[in-house]
Specification:
alpha/beta; Rossmann fold; 5-stranded parallel β-sheet; 4-stranded parallel β-sheet; 11 helices; about 35% helix; globular; binds N-carbamoyl-L-aspartate; transferase
């Protein structure tokens, strides 16, 4: 039996992923996809409980983790919008996490503060999975995005990936860019308005890895060369100046006309929710994978992660 590198481990940053353990995640995600498509569910996590501890809004991440746990035969404590909890009485994050660690085997957490998942992990005797820590990271989204690209192209090396939108505040971007830059011969176009550029500390990290990087503020010059166009929402909740947000929110709009410039084989991705940056007329284009594959892959990859974190002999 090989050693399962995820067993009983926290998932806090996409920097924990290596080429080797990504291969395991891809294989197990494929296995999960096949289980769901053929029989719907399994009972390998029967008796296990997941707490979904969400302090920020969520649709897909919250629901796909719950669906994943259910399809693995486990159960869950759903805590969304912690309004009715003791948090409103002033309880700190550590006490809340220690409490739910007494009731469950894994805690999936979303919280507005950068570093909050790491704080919780330090306090928790059970593994913590970061489902978004403010403008920090979103490592499980990066995993589903990676899986979507792999399922489509069967590789990362050699691809040109254009990341578009709010690269400053978008945590999905922060996690994904670190992950794809593990592959030396990928080309990454960072397409954003000047004031929403990728944070310097992340840029430095990926530059050290010697991937090809181009920063620009227009998509048109690179759309025709892109294999992946990954579009993000301008993160309204991270702005203090709403006038600035209004000016920037539709800096990029993907239209059917713009997509005419892209290759037939290009895929268009978005972590969702979208608020106007991809026109709905694009949805029926076969290159649009955000409503279909990308979203389904969220459940398969989270099934894979939960099964690896909770089962010693999974691999
Ligand atoms: C993203 C998030 O919460 O960071 N959504 C998601 O998890 N699919 C992206 C976003 O909110 O823009």
């Amino acid at each position: 039996m090989n050693k399962n590198p995820f067993y009983n481990h926290d998932i806090l940053s996409s920097e924990q992923y290596t080429k080797e353990n990504l291969e395991i995640l891809v294989n197990v995600s494929r296995e999960m996809k096949s289980i769901v498509e053929n029989v719907g569910s399994t009972d390998v996590l029967k008796g296990k409980v997941m707490t979904a501890l969400f302090y920020e809004p969520s649709s897909r991440t919250f629901a796909s983790f719950i669906a994943a746990m259910q399809r693995l035969g486990g159960s869950f404590i759903p805590l969304q919008g912690m309004t009715y909890s003791s948090v409103t009485k002033g309880e700190n994050l550590e006490d809340t996490v220690r409490t739910f660690a007494c009731y469950s085997d894994v805690i999936v957490q979303r919280h507005p503060e950068v570093g909050s998942a790491k704080r919780s992990a330090a306090a928790s005797p059970v593994p913590v999975i970061n489902a978004g820590d403010g403008v920090g990271e979103h490592p499980t989204q990066a995993l589903l995005d990676y899986f979507t690209i792999i399922e489509h192209f069967n590789k990362i090396n050699g691809l040109t990936i254009s990341l578009v939108g709010d690269l400053l505040n978008g945590r999905t971007i922060h996690s994904l860019v670190k992950l794809i830059s593990l592959y030396n011969s990928v080309t990454i176009n960072l397409v954003s308005p000047d004031i929403l550029k990728l944070p310097e500390y992340i840029l430095k990290k990926i530059k050290d890895r010697k991937v090809k990087i181009k920063e620009l503020d227009r998509l048109e010059p690179v759309i025709g060369k892109s294999d992946v166009v990954y579009v993000t929402r301008v993160q309204k909740e991270r702005f203090t100046d709403m006038n600035l947000y209004e000016k920037l929110k539709h800096f990029y709009i993907i239209t059917p006309q713009l997509l005419k410039k892209a290759k037939k084989t290009t895929i268009v991705m978005h972590p969702l929710p979208r608020v106007g940056e991809i026109e709905s007329a694009v949805d029926n284009d076969p290159r649009a994978v955000y409503i279909s594959d990308q979203m389904r892959n969220g459940m398969y990859t989270r099934m894979a992660l939960l099964s690896l974190v909770l089962q010693k002999n999974k691999f």
